[in-house]
Amino acid sequence: MDTITIKDIARALNLSTSTVSRALRDSYEINPETKRLVIEYAERLDYRPNPIALSLKENRSRVIGVIVPQIANNFFSQVINGIEAIAYNRGYNVIIFQSHESFERELLTVQQAVTRKADGLLISLSSSTSDVSHLRTLQEKKLPIVLFDRVSAELDLPCVTADNFAGAFAATEHLIQTGRRRIAHVTIPPYISITQERLAGYRAALEQYGIPYVESLVQYAGFGQYEVEPIIDDLLSQKPDAFFAASDRLALGCLAALKKRNVAIPETVSLIGFTNTPVADLLAPPMSTVEQPALEIGQTAAEQLIDLIEDKPKKPKPGTVRIPTRLHVRTSTQ
């Protein structure tokens, strides 16, 4: 079959090529009924825009740079799926970079994305990023940027995250309501935004129920499940009756370390994680956890970035969109 062009659609619908072009871009200048006619006809003929022609005409690459700490992480994999779904539907390609939790690698990947003429960036900051001047410089140069998951209060940019505070509050409250009072919190490095938000939710739940906050019951680890082992003995010496881990990777580390020490779950201690790993209900015991809406975070972040790139009249303003989490109660806390 011959390739269908905007001119073919315009001729068939008796419209101008500029009207068809704007309708396909979801322009606010075109009335909804005309958009509907154009989009339905284009879909019926399996119209696909020519990316090279579009980039030349619009002076845009129609490429989005996505920078994540690690792809081999179920949460970030799902976020990327959400980003790619929206990008594809709106005529953009995605280039994915990994910072591997390194500030230096983040600097390099940001520069690579800029060199490749990405129209905008979606970034989740590395765990070692405290200086965000590289992003502030790009912001001053008017490059559209949206932060997701791990964000920075120092940047006046749109941000998309899970409601980490509410999720942590719900997890801690659930433990309290099942009779637990000495709740250990195993978390990731303290300077990351999600760490601070989840710790704040944990503390708020304790305060609401009149339970004293014990600083020594909060221990910081890295990101791998095997990094929990060294801190478990110290926590167990303080006789906790529950563990709330700030990620499911850490929760898996807690599970393995507690089993190794013959600590019964949930009879002796309860255990709850944060993310909702796909294997959570297959563990022994099945693990309670807070679900992060990873796919929705990716979709929302991508929509916001593309609206910025295309300078939509209702383009997102700086500020944080917090997407609700959901608590899954399983045997490990019952």
UniProtKB/TrEMBL annotation:
GO molecular function: DNA-binding transcription factor activity; transcription cis-regulatory region binding
Keyword Phosphoprotein: no
Keywords of the record: DNA-binding, Transcription, Transcription regulation
CDD domains the UniProt entry points to: HTH_LacI, PBP1_LacI_sugar_binding-like
Domain HTH lacI-type, first and last residues per copy: 4-58
Coiled-coil region list: none
SUPFAM superfamilies reported for this sequence: lambda repressor-like DNA-binding domains, Periplasmic binding protein-like I
Record-given protein name: LacI family DNA-binding transcriptional regulator
